[in-house]
Design a protein that fits this description.
Number of strands: 0
Number of domains: 1
Largest sheet: none
Length: 166
Amino acid sequence: MWRVGVYDQIKKAFQDVVAPEINDLRGELRRLDQKIDGVNATFGAKLDGLNATVGAKIEGLDNKIDGVNATLGQKIDGVGASLGSKIDAADTRVTSFRTEMLSMKGELLAEIRRLDTRIDSVDVRIGGMEVRSDRLDARIDGLDRHLQIAIDIRERLAALEARRPS
């Protein structure tokens, strides 16, 4: 029985000391649960507000990006069209230049052929002049011999006349 008495005493002490503390702790836990629920509700509301604000800002940025994208697309298309027309104009000018160069090449070739023909005719004339020059040289040599002979004859006549008695 003595054991039952100790058990009862511990039970009584436990009920007198620990049980009220446990009840106080349960009350504190309820108050803490209520505070946590309040903080959770406040935090949830703030988080929802922040989510809505960030979502609105992201949507605004998406709209701005779409606008900038559209504007840049238009500008790039404009630059592409302008560049394309400039390339086409340059291509046309190059083609025109090439045609003009081919025409000038034809003119130059015709002029070269004409000059070749004239040079050939001048060569023929020079050849003819060389033949005439050779003939002239021969005639001059012949005249030179005749002149030598005439001078010799004159000198002989002069010598004969000088010997002749007057």
